[in-house]
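Q: Could you write out the predicted structure for this multi-component system? I'm mainly interested in how the pieces pack against one another.
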Amino acid sequence: MTIEAVVRAVTRCPGVAAWVVRERRLTSHQRYRIFQKREAERSARTTTVEVTIHTERRDGDRSVLGEAAFTLTGEATGAAPALARRAVAQAALVANPPYVLPGPSHVPHMALRDPAVAERPLEVLDALEAELDGAAGDTPVGSSEFFAESHEVRVRTSGGFEGAYAATELYVEFALLAGNGAEGVECHGIRRARRPRELDLSGALPHHARWAADRRGAGLPPTGVMPVVFSEEALDSLFAPFAAHGSARARYEGWSRLTEGKAVVAAAADPLNLSIDPHLPWRLGSRPFDAEGQVTAPVAMIRDGRFEARTASKRYADYLGLVPTGGGGTLVVGPGATPMGDLLSDGPVLHALRFSTFHPSAVTGAFSGELRTAYLCENGKVTPVSGGSVSGNVFEAFANARFSRERTVRPEYDGPMGVRLEAVTVAGRP
Amino acid sequence: MPASPNAIQPPLPDPDRLIPLLSDLVARMEADVPYAAALVTDERGERVRMGTTREQVEPVAPARGAVFSVHTGRTVVEAAVDDLTEGALTAAADRAVAAALDLGIDRRARKVDPGPEMAARFATTEATPYDAVALADKVDRARSLRDRAAALDGRVVNAIGLIGHTRSFEVFVNRAKRLVQDLKRTQAVVSVTCAVGTDGGGQSAALTDGRGRRAGWEAVDLPDDLVPRLVADCTRILGAPRLTPGYYDCVFSPEFAGIFAHEAFGHGTEADMFLKDRSRGQDYLGQPVAAPIVNMYDAPDLAGEAGGYFFDHEGQIAATTQIIEKGILVRAITDLASAHALGLPRTANGRRESFARKAYTRMSNTFFGPGDADVSEMLATIRHGFYLERPSNGMEDPKSWGIQLEGHMASEVVDGKLTGRVFSPVIVTGYVPELLQSITMVGRDREITGLGMCGKGYKEWVKVTDGGPHLRLKARLA
């Protein structure tokens, strides 16, 4: 299957006013282990071509955009002309405000593809297996999964955009065990990166082994409203509501609570500085252009606690008269002035590292999470706690937030190692 | 106007071509390896999504391909390919065998049982075939759901009506079985976002509801009160406070009971987690884990429910598994590898996200069995507590039996009556057996809404459903 054949079919189809064609090729090598025994070894190769077509029509005195999409897989290129005709018929059924697809643009080069992962994936998996076993030391690894994947992406639009990039991705999932029977606990971990260096299993595994050991016998936290310092996995989604409300889509749909030039929270100890950067080398969130062929651009969204600019796909940028920035990117948060140790010293304070799952609502900002790995810091004493929950609302809880001076880099986050929120509800011991 | 999404799409795989070819390939593979199997899947469908700010008619991303599996005696080796031509299938089968031989064959290992000889073809029954309905009618139905929701309250800033349909056509072949199934799942969903005073502050809330079934167009008929209740509840949680953390007497709605069943002893009895020593359930088989009035099931053969199927992705014919019987944990759910390794009975729970992903032990339709209480009787026994409904997500740790259930809405109950005060959102945390043993009443009703998806850990998404009757229990809420 070739993208050129699909483009030919779409351009020759009557009624198509504009189009985007995206080709994605994926090669995936997967290894699964139970303890140190290989449970399964897999390889998979897939190719998909996704097509979006636009049509134009009048509805009274307004212009209306019709749109429809279809996807081809494997050997199915021959179906493209018939699918394009069907897409035109489908597009006549929907009515959206018009916008213009991206045109020609310089595609920035980015370091996203590791040659070793792309060309010698099985050797890389062997090395990662050995690194994981070495780093786990005496801590049993109940299960582990290793993925080495290569992606090739090409996008063309009717407006003249043409771009391609290649990227690699490593995924390692593991469960470290501590204790036996009813006393047994695990610490589950996921590492993702574009190359082994950033995956850093040697650096990460000892932490997980310690967290597994600390969960044994860990009791519930106290109940009440108290300061909580979020770090590690807890940081991955803590800022997501700001990014969601800072999007052009949220503004267009009428639920963004952020207004240009206004403070994002009522009071701030450390002013929030937040940007979305799709250009950082080797980051999983980085990409030169998005699925519509819009070349990406960094966005300084919140500066000194005030909302400044929105991320915007080409669609919503056109709807709102904004500069398009494309989608995706690493969430970059400015550091504070306080050492991490000081954030944890003014206790009692709960240090929350890992949750069962933690996804603040993008719309409301409300968050809740069951604590898997946490520590109660009080009078110089650090006590492991587990179970119970923390809850609150990001937009309220960030009043008086303080950020650590030290930074940490996670797959799609680059910012302070710790974020202290002063008044978070903790539900634990009766 | 074309009526169906399949009319012009590539034709479905032809089982009359594939079965002889796959049978030959499996036989050829088994000349070198102890057990081989082939699975072809073709998943397709469409989404008709009519929103206030954007309308879309688009296909579900198709996944069409084959996977060849080899058991070496020690390891499962697989090769997957998205090209169903004879040459590509032969190459993938050869690739799987070559990789297996590289790893080595253990001829002394216990042989994998291919099951009884069987050739069968199964298909979903549709009262009104989805593909026979004109696309324009689907668009109209989705718009009418959207427009009805949007017109009910001025605070609705975005409403979406969604009609969704997937078709999974699957062919499984090993040396004993030649199976074909054609699964059709249809759903109607409504989402609303409400907001007031958003500029520089204000409040916003969002809720979704709907129904999904293993059925045709008839599945898009929603209960009359679903949309008005959805919009009313969304406006009720707009700006609602959170409740004071503590241990409370609760009544779980059937939906909330469903997510509880799924997280508690759905994930807790997946036998592949036993193999990895990642589940405490293996130490409790045959022991009490819940109140004696509690029964729990996983039923891929439950008629019409969207998480079901006729056979799993490893060729096991669907049948109901009772997981908890009168409070006793009686049986685990298994996939081929875990049942083989642990000597447990096989259940039809070996499932894959797609041909390109591994099979694991996965749930299907998971639910609590009914009891004999009425919800009004349950509420009448509560002096101060909450009625929990509209769950949003959950997570369980099968190794420690910790659980997290989140929901959008907790309605206060005082002296047996709902006070009208609503708190949002709400989180339930606790120790699974403690929660299950605190169940004192089980409703006689049972509801399965059919909208769920489930990940293994944090990936590998498959279609599941869950549900149950109302439950009365005690839980830690925040």
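A: Regarding packing and overall arrangement: The CA atoms of residues 228 and 350 of chain A lie 5 Å apart.
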